[in-house]
Every structure is written in C-alpha cells, then in structure tokens.
Inverse folding.
C-alpha cells in the first residue's frame, strides 16, 4: 500500500530564469538551486551548473548518489582515476562513495543538471558559496584571505554534508 497524498507538499516548477532562483558562485562555477531538499522533503535536489572553461571542483567523494546530465558543451569526469569526456545529451551517474571530480577542459562554457539523492548538496553549496544576482553574474572578486576562508568553511562542513575532499 502506498500512503495517502501528502497535501502539505506542493507542485514545484523549476525555471532557471525565475527571479526567485538562488544562484551560488562556487569555485568559479555558477550553480542555480532549481529544486531544493526543502521542496522534496529531503528526497533529492536538482542544481543547474554553469561551468566555465577550466571550472570544476577538486577530487572528492560522498555517500549519496549524484547524476549529471550535460545540457551544453563538454565535461571531463574523472571517476576512480579514469577520465571520461562527456558531451551534451549524455547523463553520468556517480555511485555513492566513489572518488570523482569534473572539469571543463573544452575551451568553451558548459552547462549541466546535477541531481543528488538524498538532498543536502544544495544546502552545502549555499553555506560555502557566495550568492550572486543571476546566472550571468561574474564570480565575486575574493581576496586571498576570503578564498582561504571559503576553503576552510568547505572543509569544516564537508563531513556534516557526508562529503570528503581527497
């Protein structure tokens, strides 16, 4: 038997151009929080990632599933040490606990959707990144001290969000 409909939950329509969308600048990338864990009762989150040439996070792993669908451009994923170049239209699933990272080495901007299940990555990014006005806003110009503070905060909160930098 499935439970009754939970009338306290509502329909979510994710539009990256909606003025209410939260945009986060993190490691030079711009992440739009399209569907948050708060909206899905913690089941998953969906993030629209704009990755400039050269952008991407350092190697890491976490104990939740992460799926990427490339919308524009190309992204190089490193999964358990092996590189895979993935283009628009393809989807990549990263199993929980597997070491990985991605980098845009294409020479052009790339864009992808990232779904994490369960949710939490959306909250982590919001706590360690900087809110920017919109998808086209440049990343903030941070001093060396501010960059060090962002790295310290990311490392400090990683275990809270079930992540580990490698």
């Amino acid at each position: 038997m499935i439970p009754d409909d939970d009338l306290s939950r509502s329909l979510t329509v994710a539009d990256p151009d909606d003025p209410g969308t939260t945009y986060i600048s993190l490691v030079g990338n711009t992440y739009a929080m399209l569907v948050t864990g708060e909206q899905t009762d913690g089941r998953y989150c969906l993030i629209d990632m704009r990755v400039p040439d050269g952008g991407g996070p350092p190697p890491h792993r976490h104990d939740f599933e992460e799926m990427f669908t490339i919308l524009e451009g190309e992204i190089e994923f490193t999964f358990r040490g092996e590189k895979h170049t993935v283009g628009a239209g393809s989807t990549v699933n990263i199993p929980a606990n597997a070491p990985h990272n991605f980098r845009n080495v294409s020479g052009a901007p790339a864009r992808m959707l990232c779904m994490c299940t369960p949710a939490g990555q959306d909250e982590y990014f919001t706590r360690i990144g900087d809110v920017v006005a919109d998808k086209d806003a440049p990343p903030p110009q941070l001093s060396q001290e501010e960059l060090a503070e962002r790295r310290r905060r990311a490392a400090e909160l990683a275990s809270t969000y079930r992540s580990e930098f490698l």
About this structure: The chain is about 15% helix and 40% strand. The helical segments are 121-128, 144-158. The chain has a mean pLDDT of 96.
